[in-house]
Every structure is written in structure tokens, then in C-alpha cells.
Amino acid sequence: DLIVHVRDVTHPETILQKATVLSVLRNLNLPSDLLDSMVEVHNKVDLIERYKPTEENALAVSALHGHGLEELKQEIEKKILTATGKKILTVNINLEGPQLSWLYKEATVQEVEVMPEDGTARVKVIISSSAFGRYKSLFPN
Description:
The protein is α/β, with parallel strands linked by helices. 38% of the residues lie in helices and 27% in strands. Strands 1-2-3 form a 3-stranded parallel β-sheet, sandwiched between helices. The chain is elongated, with a radius of gyration of 21 Å.
């Protein structure tokens, strides 16, 4: 669904390495949308003072120090959701009904926050549009 190209920007041949990787990927006859959506990550930016990526849409990270990793995670999540046609939603459910069980079968449940005072829960899920349509028709409230 997604290619993440991590580069060591401190390597003296980093530009040549990028060109080689792109050439290999093109020779694999991958779909052009997969190549176009590739996430480029510039790693080891902690070793270069005031590093700013010169390439458009490149993310600067330091895996060693954790710099930029949250932004990388968000970008990967966004691109995967786009590529798979899924979305992240939070739905309110009644715990006495079958909704939670249905969501565990038909979606990816990420978080369940139970409100014991009224027997409900807020459920954060990753779900396809078609599955969410089925959910709404089965559980209109």
C-alpha cells in the first residue's frame, strides 16, 4: 500500500543512492500511484546542524533521538488510509447491543472508552466506507 524510502542524509552518496533506489523501483513496474505516494524520510538529521530537506515533501527525522517520528507516523497513517480507502472514526455505542462485537469483526478497533454510568462506550475504529455504510444501516442510532 505504501513505500517508505528512508535515506541516510549524512552519507556522501545519498543523492546517488536515492537515484539507484528509484531506478530499481521503476524497473519493478510498480503502479505509478504507488511511486507517486512514496514517503521520503531523511534520517540522521541530528548529525547535520540546522538540517532542512531540500526535496519537496521529505520528512526530516532522527531515529536515534526520536525527532520527527510523530510527524512520520502521522504521514504514514494518512497515506495508508488514502491508499486503502479507509477512515478513522469514533462511534458511540450501547454496550448492551451487538455493535461492539460487530465492529471487532468488520473493522479495526483501536480504542474503547467505556462510560459505565450509562452503559455506553466511545469506540475509535479504522473502517472502510462500505463497512461503515453497513454499520449505519444495521445500527441507525
